[in-house]
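Students often ask why we bother encoding 3D structure as a string. The short answer is that it lets us treat folding as translation between two languages. Here is a chain of 306 residues written in the first language.
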Amino acid sequence: MCPTGITNRINPSEEILLFVTISDLDVPELADYVHLTDVALRRTLEVERGLYMAESTKVIMRAIQAGHTPRSFLTAPRWLPDLEPWIERACGAADGGDIPVFVADEELLRRITGFRLHRGALAAMNRPELPDPIALLRQARGGTGARRIVILEDLVDHTNVGAIFRSAAALGVDAVLVTEHCADPLYRRSVRVSMGTVFQVPWTRITQWPSSIEQLRAEGFVTAALALTHDAIPLDTFSHSAVCTASDSKIAVVMGTEGDGLARRTIAAADYSVIIPMAGDVDSLNVAAASAVACWELRLPDDRTE
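And here it is in the second language, the structure alphabet:
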């Protein structure tokens, strides 16, 4: 495979590394990387092709650490030294071996992708098969089972999805479930905003929502819908109740779409409605900010210091 040429260089161990240089935009090998700024198109293309994009060396590193396999890499020359150890870990060779490593100057990269690459590196990764939700929850926490989970109902903003995963990873959430129409956690913007933590927190899609709340209930989970309802209880009151403080408590906090919040059917099916009390005549927090507050307040009893 050689769209426009081969670049070689000698690494510190005096091994000759070969990379595919790009000087022409119109080569079929770059098909995975075009139209990256077209969200609607990529939403279809990436799933159909079984791929997702990892942007920046740090995100690529976390994807590889999670065991995901690359299809190809696309980078600028100055970022190759940072990327090579991870290429070697994933592919068995610092130049990718059978996996192409495309190299182009940064202006050409911008023309290929439609934006300026963050730290000059992208990888097209094979999309892993999503596990069954109940199997995922049972396998969490080293096989002892999930205790704290977040459910995202029909969020549309990839930035919010990525931010929620970052909070979930930082605040000890065991798993995230997303509904069928929720934005893709593996979309490039979600992955980037999450700083690659989407690869750290186990997640999958849950179907037949909200009827599938019954499956969670059968696994011992109490569901708390974050919703502005007349009978909602303050988050801190809920977190200090026996439901949350019991040594075997299992809590699923459910968060809704940015505009309308949770569906009425979801609120009706949940065990509790919970609110974050607001001051200053503010109705509510952005869903990403609310997720951080809720994940912190609902952390496991053993993680509390008071």
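Translate back mentally: The longest strand covers residues 16-21. Keep this in mind for the problem set.
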